[in-house]
Amino acid sequence: MNRTATHALAVLGVVIATGFGAGTDQGSSVVPASTSVAVSPGAALDPQSPELIIPAAEAATLHELMIFVVEDADAFWTGVWEEAGRPAQDVQYAFPAAGEAQRTSCTASGFTDDSNAFYCTVDDQIVLSQVVAAQILEGTYRANADGVRLYATGDFSVAYIVAHEYAHSLQAELGILQPYSLVHPVYKTELHADCWAGVWAKSAFNQGILDAGDIEEAVQTTLDIGDFEYDNLNHHGTPDQRSAALMRGYDSGIPEDCESYLSGDY
Description:
alpha/beta
């Protein structure tokens, strides 16, 4: 990602944490959780569609990529919130390194672990372990047995997950997500968050910080983490639904075009 081109559910008890997959898953600022943070595939994809540009001199670590994405998403959504006359949003994040545990209200143990990837409504905190992020980047993290491989995964796969979890924090600001109750079925909030992740991705494209191949990376990740557990309260949407939601947000770039994922019958 060319940083010079831009500003430098699972249900656990009664506490709701929402992650990116059923199987896993500042003022206008983003606030680190602690100082120890290490931190329809047929949707008309252009073969020359963007890929995240990360010059070797700038992209030292996966952790730095996640920090950059969460800050870029925060800057974009801060502008959207201001235009709508909403109070400035505020969210914490934790991107723990392998073996690093941080306190959270959304696990049974009260601490994060290497398998965690979620937004915790109680703490207003995005949690994405660097172990999971590396699996996402490599394409080894899956929530279904389909094995559909249309594209390679990569850095924008991780960017999509961070943007998806950031979208959950926005949902909490709007009351779409609440700490101790479900306002909407999980799959609706997940697809809505996928769509909003696509809206952010379009803003990244408009800034000129993507290059050929990135959107395909994110689409492949939606295919990897979609699920068919229709009878599971934590069902997040099928692979096709998730890829279509991401691409609706990306093709439109307009947050309001994602609202039917919350209000529609499907």
